[in-house]
């Protein structure tokens, strides 16, 4: 029994004895010591690992926060870059549009100076542009308020202004206007802005529209079929006022058209072809109108109206 070790375990159920030899007496304490040491070492390692894990989690959270910050900054940069790209595109388009407008303006001003009879120029100062625009505006104003152009489209002139043999009476008499051969129902348009003085029937003329215009001008539209305006109506140049017909003293469907000023009939022919491109021609072709007073009211700048030296200060209406 000298080399034996007896271990007694006592419980509520009784005691039990275990016999260990001498080797076991050495191994068991050593095992217990190692177990205790392992426990403390493991516990220390666990604590260190937990601390390291906590540090790693903190680092991970910090890196996550930094990532979110960087990601947000990147998204902001991307948004700003997209906005800058859009702004650049808009500016490029605007620059292109401005270039087109400048080219168009130069072309338009070039067209205006050509129409107005002014010397050609490669560039325009603001003052020159204003002169061109003002001159064109004045001319367009006159072209809107003084009869010009044809009163109906797609027709031909069948009788001119002046003495003729009347187709009905067969007598020589004055024809105070021009006739256009036109089928019944052809649209008739106002040749200038004005107000309707008369719209109805009148002996000889049949259905008739008389329009008053600025500067003492009037226009007559006779032998109509349908009247589209009434007395007192304000009418714009180019507005539909009637349809041609064969009413009154007429030998067939046509439009009788007159231009009058201060109760005197004027040959409509120069007014039919008058436009902004040949603006000055009317002042030499029609000498019965006192254009000088009109020039004083509406000076036409560098493209001023040139009156013929033979024109007198008083009207000389044709008879």
Brief digest:
With 319 residues, this protein is an alpha+beta fold.
Describe this structure in words.
The chain has helices at 22-116, 126-145, 269-272, 281-285, 291-297, and strands at residues 4-11, 14-21, 156-159, 162-165, 172-175, 178-181, 187-189, 194-202, 206-212, 217-227, 234-235, 240-244, 254-261, 264-266. Residues 301-319 have low confidence and may be disordered. By secondary structure, the chain is of the alpha+beta class. A hairpin with a 3-residue loop joins strand 8 (194-202) and strand 9 (206-212). It starts with a strand and ends in a 22-residue tail after the last helix. It has two domains: 25-101; 145-303, Glucose Permease (Domain IIA). The strands form three sheets. Strands 3, 6, 7, 8, 9, 10, 11, 12, 13 and 14 form a ten-stranded antiparallel beta sheet that branches. Helix 1 (22-116) crosses helix 2 (126-145).
Which secondary structure elements does this structure contain, and how are they paired or packed?
Elements lengths: L3 E8 L2 E8 H95 L9 H20 L10 E4 L2 E4 L6 E4 L2 E4 L5 E3 L4 E9 L3 E7 L4 E11 L6 E2 L4 E5 L9 E8 L2 E3 L2 H4 L8 H5 L5 H7 L22
Antiparallel strand pairs: 1-2, 3-6, 4-5, 6-13, 7-12, 8-9, 8-11, 9-10, 10-12, 10-13, 13-14
Helix pairs in contact: 1-2
Q: Keyphrases for this structure?
A:
319 residues, alpha+beta, Glucose Permease (Domain IIA), 2 domains, two-stranded antiparallel ribbon, 5 helices, rod-shaped, disordered C terminus, Peptidase M23, transmembrane, Dup_hybrid_motif, membrane, signal
């Amino acid at each position: 029994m000298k080399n034996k070790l007896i271990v007694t375990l006592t419980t509520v159920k009784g005691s039990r004895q275990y016999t260990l030899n001498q080797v076991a007496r050495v191994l068991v304490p050593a095992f217990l010591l190692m177990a205790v040491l392992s426990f403390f070492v493991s516990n220390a390692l666990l604590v260190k690992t937990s601390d390291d894990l906590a540090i790693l989690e903190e680092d991970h959270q910090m890196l996550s926060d930094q990532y979110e910050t960087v990601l947000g900054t990147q998204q902001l940069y991307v948004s700003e870059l997209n906005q800058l790209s859009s702004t650049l595109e808009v500016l490029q388009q605007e620059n292109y549009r401005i270039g087109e407008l400048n080219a168009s303006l130069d072309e338009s001003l070039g067209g205006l100076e050509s129409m107005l009879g002014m010397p050609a120029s490669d560039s325009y100062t603001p003052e020159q542009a204003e002169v061109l625009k003002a001159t064109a505006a004045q001319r367009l104003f006159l072209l809107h308020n003084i009869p010009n152009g044809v009163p109906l489209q797609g027709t031909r002139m069948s009788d001119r202004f002046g003495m003729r043999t009347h187709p009905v009476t067969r007598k020589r008499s004055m024809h105070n206007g021009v006739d256009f051969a036109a089928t019944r129902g052809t649209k008739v348009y106002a040749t200038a802005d004005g107000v309707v003085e008369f719209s109805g029937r009148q002996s000889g003329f049949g259905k008739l529209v008389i329009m008053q215009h600025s500067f003492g001008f009037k226009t007559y539209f006779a032998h109509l079929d349908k009247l589209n305006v009434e007395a007192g109506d304000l009418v714009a140049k180019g507005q539909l006022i009637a349809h041609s017909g064969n009413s009154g003293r007429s030998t067939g469907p046509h439009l009788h058209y007159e231009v009058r000023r201060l109760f005197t009939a004027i040959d409509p022919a120069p007014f039919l072809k008058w436009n902004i491109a040949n603006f000055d021609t009317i002042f030499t072709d029609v000498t019965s109108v006192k254009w000088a007073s009109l020039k004083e009211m509406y000076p036409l700048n560098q493209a001023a109206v040139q009156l013929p030296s033979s024109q007198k200060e008083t009207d000389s209406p044709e008879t």
